[in-house]
Amino acid sequence: MSMLTPPGMGGKYRITGNKYPKMRRPRRRGRLVVLTVASVVVLGVGGWGTLQLIDVFTGGGREASAAGDGTDCGVRTKASPSPSAKPLPEPRTITVNVLNATTRGGLAKKTADELKKRGFKIGDVGNATKQYDKKVKGTGLLLGPATALDTTLPVLGTQLPGAERRTEAARKGATVDLVIGDGFKALAPQQDADRALTKLARPEPAPTTKKDC
After folding, report:
1. pLDDT at 16 exceeding the cut of 60
2. Which residue stretches of 59-144 are H helix?
3. Where is region (Disordered) located (predicted)?
4. Separation CA 167–CA 159 (nearest Å)
5. What is the pLDDT of residues 121-154, one digit of tens each?
6. CA-CA 20 to 30 A from 53: which of 37, 130, 183, 192?
7. Is-contact 155 88, C-beta < 8 A?
8. Sorting pLDDT into bands at 50, 70 and 90, what band is 83?
9. Which residue spans within 34-171 are E strands per DSSP?
10. Distance in angstroms (rounded) separating the CA atoms of residues 67 and 157
11. CA-to-CA dists, residue 65 to 51, 58, 59, 61, 74, angstroms
12. Spatial CB neighbours of 202, under 8 Å, sequence gap ≥ 6
């Protein structure tokens, strides 16, 4: 039996017999796995940071472009003050002729009495002229001079909603006519008429829309 010492062993190991011991390399597989994982993490963090920098310098990508073209802007609705209108006359300053164009008797006087209770001045009361007698098919016809179209007639119209409004260019003075038509049943309830008068004198502001970007 021979005694052999493999070269490079420095005499530390002595081998006896006719079999050499198996020399194993140090286990480095676990260390390599750890290093590989760490490298992947570092590269991932670095790539994410790069993307963030790109977003910063390019304005945020899609969100920035969306804000730029206004597609994601919020819309606000705001009531804008209504333009100043000409003050409307009060019922006590309006003189109304009440004329009956139907075949039903007594409508003119009854309607005139109700208008008087509501503050209007009453002028002539009676049958309509031949021009309108039995020719008004709706609830009524409001007649007045050209200046009454946007002043007196709207105020009188609150008492008889749906009545046609018409002006006569040659007509003089401020008196207006309420010609009762075939479709007439009664004046508007006083509460509704008062509400309409208030709304007419103080119109609600028109809503406007504004984009809030």
Report:
1. no
2. 62-69, 107-117
3. 66-88
4. 18
5. 999 999 999 999 999 999 999 999 999 999 999 9
6. 37
7. yes
8. very low
9. 74-80, 95-100, 121-127, 140-144, 164-167
10. 50
11. 17, 10, 8, 6, 15
12. none
Task: Report how far residue 209's alpha carbon sits from residue 213's, in angstroms, rounded to the nearest whole number.
Answer: 13
Residue whose token pair is 């899609």 = 62
**Can you read off the two tokens belonging to residue 73?**
């802007």
DSSP, res 186: -
- For 109, what's the count of Cα atoms within 13 Å in the CB-facing half-sphere? 3
Contacts of 134 (CB under 8 A, 6+ apart): 101, 102, 103, 182
Q: Please, which residues bridge with residue 128 across strands?
A: none
95-201: CATH topology: Alpha-Beta Plaits (3.30.70)
213 Cβ contact list (under 8 Å, min separation 6): 67, 70, 73, 74
